[in-house]
Amino acid sequence: MSDVLLKLSACGVFTYSTFSIIAGCLGDYRKMPNLVIMVTGVIAIIQVVIQLLFIPDVGRRRIHTAEQDRSKPGRQIVTFLLICNLAIWVIYTFEIQKVEESPVQIEFFGYQPWVIIQKLTLPLCIFFRFHSTVVLAEIWKNSYKTKLID
């Protein structure tokens, strides 16, 4: 069920990023703000795809040897993703919702269409980041319990 929620809410991130990429590309892409918006959108899409592939894989892994119990392989990546998703959740929740913070998109789409796009996609983006944080915290807690096989 958790994977389904992540995949459905990822559609919001994909949609928001796609509209941002469109605004960055089809606007005056030689301007630095347009370029930043475009690159940020591409990076967000790549990050979400990799994270959607990573979470189910790491969620199935367990520790089986004493060496793995000492080194806890992959825990740093899970911790990094957990902190990053929490930070992005805070940004989506408190900053991105301010329509004035998206001048490139407003210039390209217009004020009212961009407000509609934001109101439709940002709740899914916020949910994706929050739910990813919770899932990664569960993985961090459960994947590193010792289940030694003798």
The helix-strand sequence is HHHHHH
Residue share in β-strands: under 5%
How much helical structure, as a percent, in the residues? Answer: over 70%
Gap between N and C termini, in Å? Answer: 33 Å
Give the count of helical stretches. Answer: 6
Mean pLDDT: 89
Q: Give the overall shape.
A: elongated
The poorly predicted ranges are: none
Reported for the largest beta sheet, the result is: none
- The chain-level structural class is mainly alpha
What does the radius of gyration come to? 18 Å
Kindly state the number of beta strands: 0
Total of domains: 1
Summarize the structure.
By secondary structure, this protein is mainly alpha-helical.
Explain this structure.
The chain is 81% helix and 0% strand. The protein is mainly α. Helix 1 (2-26) runs antiparallel to helix 6 and helix 5 packs across helix 6 (111-142). It has helices at 2-26, 32-60, 66-71, 75-96, 103-109, 111-142. The two termini are 33 Å apart. It has one domain. The longest helix is centred in the C-terminal third of the chain and has 32 residues, at 111-142.
Summary keywords:
150 residues; mainly alpha; 81% helix
SSE inventory with pairings:
Layout: H1 2-26, H2 32-60, H3 66-71, H4 75-96, H5 103-109, H6 111-142
